[in-house]
Amino acid sequence: MARKKNASAETTRLRIREAALRLFARHGYAAVSMRQIASDVGVQAGTLYLYTPDKQTLLFDLMHAHMLDLLDALAALPDAPDPRAALEQFTRFHIRFHRARSDAVFIAYMELRNLEPENFERIEDLRRRYEAHLAGLLTQGQTAGAFTLPDPKLAAFALIAMLTGVNTWYREGGRLSLARVEDIYWDMVRKAVGA
Amino acid sequence: MARKKNASAETTRLRIREAALRLFARHGYAAVSMRQIASDVGVQAGTLYLYTPDKQTLLFDLMHAHMLDLLDALAALPDAPDPRAALEQFTRFHIRFHRARSDAVFIAYMELRNLEPENFERIEDLRRRYEAHLAGLLTQGQTAGAFTLPDPKLAAFALIAMLTGVNTWYREGGRLSLARVEDIYWDMVRKAVGA
DNA sequence: GTCTATAGCGAGATAGAC
DNA sequence: GTCTATCTCGCTATAGAC
C-alpha cells in the first residue's frame, strides 16, 4: 500500500535526521562520513541520497529546522504582565528549550563555518531575530524604568551567551535540578539588568 | 652555519603553527588538510612531518600552549586589594586576553571533541583550573560579605560564558571600543554578583 | 526503497633524491 | 630542510540490479 510505503520512508527519513544530529554534534560535521550515518541508521550509504541531495543540505536542514523550532516556541510564549516577568519567562524558556535540544544547539553554533555562504546567511538571519527579540524586551524594560542597563544590545548578547552556557556543564542527575538552575540563573540575570 | 639553519627551522615551525591555528579556527580541524596547511606556509605536505609527528599532535600542541598561556597570564596578574577589585581585574583580563587570541580561544573550545581521550583530559584539567580560580575568588568575596550570589560555582560558569561570548560579536572598529565593552560587561558582572 | 558495486577524488603519512 | 613521488585508505556521490 502507498500509505505503508510512505510511513516507512518517513521513518527512515526521521532516523537519518536523528543519527546525523547526534553524530554531527558528537564528532563534528566534517569528521562524520555519510557511511557512518548510514551505518547508524542501518541502511547503505547510497540510500541516504534518496532523502537528501547531499551532505551539506542535510546539515543545513537540521540547523534550519532547529532555528524555526526556536522562533516558533518563542512566539508561542504567553504574554507577560510586565518587563520583569517577560525577562524571567525568557530566561527560563531559553534554559529549558536549549537544554532539551543540546545536540541541535551545539550544531547550530559550531557548524556555522561549514555552511556555504547562502545557507550561512539564512541561519544567521534567524539567529539575529532571536537576539533582537531579547534586545527589544530589554529596551522596553529600560524605557519603562524596570531595568537599568548600560547597553540593551550588548546585554542581550551577554545574557544569551550566559544562558546557553548551561549546556556546557549541566548533566542530568547532577548536584542541582534544572528548576534550581533556572532559579539561580534568573537571580543573576535579574541583578545584571538591575531589575 | 648551525645557527642559521636552526633559526630558519624555527621560523618554519612558527609559521606552521600560525597557519594551522588560523585554518583550524576558520574551517575546523577535521575540514583542514595537511596539504592546505603546507600550502599556506609555502612548503610541501611532507615537510610538516619534520615538525609534528601527526595532525592530532599539532592540534593538541596548539590547544595546550594556549591554555598554558592563559594560566600563566592569570598567575601574573597583580594582587588586588579586595574581592571587588579582584573581580573587576579578572573581568577585564578575561575579555582582553581572549579577544587578542580569538583563533586559539575558538579552537580550544570547539575542537575538544577532536582530541583523543588522553589529550582531552589534559586540556580539560587546565580549563578546570581556570574556572576554579574564578570560583575561588567569588567564594572569598561572598565569605567577606562583598558579594551576594546563590552559587559561586555556577556563577563562575555563567560569568566565563558571558565574557567569552564577546568574541562572537566584537569586531575591531565597530560601534564600541574594547575599553568601553569592558566597562559595560564589568557593570553587568558587578551587578550579577551583587557587588 | 534499498541494495551492491564502483567511479573519481583527496586524505594522512612515508621514502628517498637533492 | 625541503622536495617529488607514492602507498594506502576512506570519502562523496552515482549507476543499476532487485
Would you write up a description of this structure?
Two copies of one chain form a homodimer. In chain A, helix 4 crosses helix 6, helix 5 runs antiparallel to helix 7 and helix 5 packs across helix 10. Chain A starts with a helix and ends with a helix. Chain A is elongated, with a radius of gyration of 19 Å. Chain A contains ten helices and no strands. Chain A has two domains: 52 residues, Homeodomain-like (Arc Repressor Mutant, subunit A), CATH 1.10.10.60; 139 residues, Orthogonal Bundle (Tetracycline Repressor, domain 2), CATH 1.10.357. The first copy, chain A, has 195 residues and is mostly helical. The N terminus of chain A is likely disordered. At the A-B interface, helix 8, helix 9 and helix 10 of A face helix 8, helix 9 and helix 10 of B. Chain B binds a DNA duplex (18 and 18 nucleotides) through helix 1 and helix 3.
- Helix content range of chain A: over 70%
How many domains of chain A? 2
Note poorly predicted spans of chain A. Answer: 1-5
Largest interface: A-B, 37 and 37 residues
Oligomeric form: homodimer
Output the helix-strand order of chain A: HHHHHHHHHH
* Helical segment count of chain A: 10
Terminal residue distance of chain A? 61 Å
Number of strands of chain A: 0
Calculate Rg of chain A over CA atoms.
19 Å
**Strand coverage percent of chain A:** under 5%
Q: Classify the fold: give the CATH topology of the largest domain in chain A.
A: Tetracycline Repressor, domain 2
> What is the structural class of chain A?
mainly alpha
